[in-house]
Design a protein that fits this description.
homodimer, alpha/beta, Rossmann fold, Dehydroquinate synthase-like, alpha domain, 2 domains, six-stranded parallel β-sheet, two-stranded antiparallel ribbon, 13 helices, about 45% helix
Chain lengths: ~325, ~325
């Protein structure tokens, strides 16, 4: 399993990375500002649009140019897009080189670094091409979050809140209520604890189902099926965390409607979402619903032709279920 | 582990494949002549030159066009090139779909189907990009070998002979001496037994080191480092098995020269190679030796910068070792 280390500042990174022999640092022009770049690095343009084969191709070419071997180390340094691509490239270079990840966004700290999902977007579908390839180490530096744009910070919070619902206890839920102001002020020690609690939840699910084959890990997709389709419909102008938060609103609505989700659990969950500014007000108009449905159908989590949604039966009790088109319409309409 | 089934004729294939629900058959225009193609198939041009990202891209696009899900089945039907690409595509489609392989060449029956190596060529380096992804089932139909061109049949024999040296006992070696004529006449039952004995050897090595991390599985590369570099130098005009057979001659020569390989083992091995028409006479001229060395250095099996060769200490006793440039030169020169 992946080792997670917390570093108190970016300055500690250089000495830690020096311990690795032959490396290639993969980053983008945003994240690269946070660190002194080593000479064996590749800096890609930032953004989800760049998450495609051509970028992976550039990483692999650079690795080859540097004569990297199977025991060389790919170091992903950046947000989820960079980490997913660096991880994918590492997983296929000579059928698998070594991999270390340094997430620099809240979303990637709590979402992209653990569990080994790698990939890139293909024909407009997020992460359609990918592998399972856990990093040998993840280095968390909460320091790097200080300069993170507000929208990206919020995007990460969407996933943290999701983990609060999926947790077997209410510890993270309570923590998020009690420390709301310190979190929004990005106090390093509070963020560290929040990230730790959030990763604990994620680890609970992925260790029980590393390759998403038993329907356990799939619970981490709470809000994702509704949310991805919105992101896809709006051409990725909705951030991942916002999409997931919106999707959770819809999943609670569908769950209550179908008698799966207890009303008091749903209302407490909705309160936490709203405390963090995720209102879920956006709705899918009738004339765009067919396009929305098509986006859901092409969601990669479908199995044997049917798309499964994660609904909640209560705290830490996810359940996977297909939904009728009419139930989806009810959940996402005004 | 992969299940291996032997079918007595291609006609049995249709009913067997019908048991799988949603499939994509990946084949090339040579192999496709052997079977009634299902409608959900993709036929690629044949040949090693096609073993590149663009072909994988076409397979993935077709899978997407057919709305395949993670539990759909990619069926590789053809020689090693097709099987490696179908396997790679299957391993990355939605982070891993199901995979069944039907090899139609001797080389792919004994070499490419077991052990889960997938991949494609990249910047002129064979299989530089790939994954480990064992098929759930391999269907062997010796029937398909009847129309195989002589050169391709010989190419497969090169790997079979290699397995005779790597085997812990001399069973396969003796079988190849005793049944030479029946093998060359492609008698189905004799080929079946030869393939079975050959796969037993391969399985012995791969089950002890599935991801080639312990230096055990690497023994299967006997002849490959010398041979791949020759293939690379000659622009892939040398067949894989011929390259490997030539490489084994060189490995025995280097081994004897360095006192690693007993002379009587080497001479018995060389006799078997010669019985099957692999003479190893070709040599690397002085003025092309630097290019040959460069091809060796870029061999993907190098680790931490040094390329390791497989030498033999006797029957079933491979050893991995780096070689000095001068020792390589002695082995491959006239």
């Amino acid at each position: 399993m992946t080792d997670v280390y917390a570093l108190s500042s970016v300055d500690e990174l250089g000495p830690v990375l020096k311990d690795y022999d032959r490396t290639l640092m993969v980053t983008d022009s945003n994240a690269s500002k946070l660190v002194d770049l080593p000479s064996s690095s590749i800096v890609l343009p930032p953004g989800e649009c760049e998450k495609r084969w051509e970028s992976v191709d550039r990483i692999l070419s650079r690795a080859l140019e540097l004569s990297l071997a199977r025991d060389s180390v790919f170091i992903g340094f950046g947000g989820g897009v960079i980490l997913d691509m660096a991880s994918f490239a590492s997983s296929v270079y000579m059928r698998g080189a070594r991999l270390v990840l340094v997430p620099t966004t809240l979303l990637s700290m709590v979402d992209a670094t653990l569990g080994g999902k790698t990939g890139f977007d293909y024909h407009g579908i997020k992460n359609l091409v990918g592998t399972f390839y856990p990093a040998e180490a993840v280095l968390i530096v909460p320091d790097t979050l200080r300069t993170l744009p507000e929208s990206e910070f919020r995007s990460g919070l969407g996933e943290v809140v999701k983990h609060a619902f999926l947790s077997k206890d209410r510890k993270l839920h309570e923590f998020l209520i009690e420390n709301h102001d310190a979190i929004m002020a990005r106090k390093s020690d509070v963020l560290s604890e929040m990230i730790r609690l959030s990763l604990e939840v994620k680890i609970w699910y992925i260790t029980r189902d590393p390759e998403e084959k038993k329907g356990i890990r799939s619970a981490l997709n709470l809000g994702h099926t509704f949310g991805h389709a919105l992101e896809s419909l709006r051409g990725f102008s909705v951030s991942h965390g916002e999409g997931v938060a919106w999707g959770m609103h819809k999943a609670f609505r569908a769950g209550v409607e179908l008698g799966v989700t207890p009303e008091d659990f749903a209302s407490s969950a909705v309160s936490l979402l709203e405390l963090y500014g995720f209102d879920g007000d956006e709705s899918i108009a009738d004339d765009e619903f067919s396009r929305y449905l098509a986006a859901i159908r092409s969601d990669k989590k479908k199995s044997g032709g049917s798309v499964k949604f994660v609904l909640m039966e209560g705290q830490g009790l996810p359940v996977l279920t297909p939904l009728a088109d009419e139930d989806i319409r009810k959940a996402v309409s005004c």
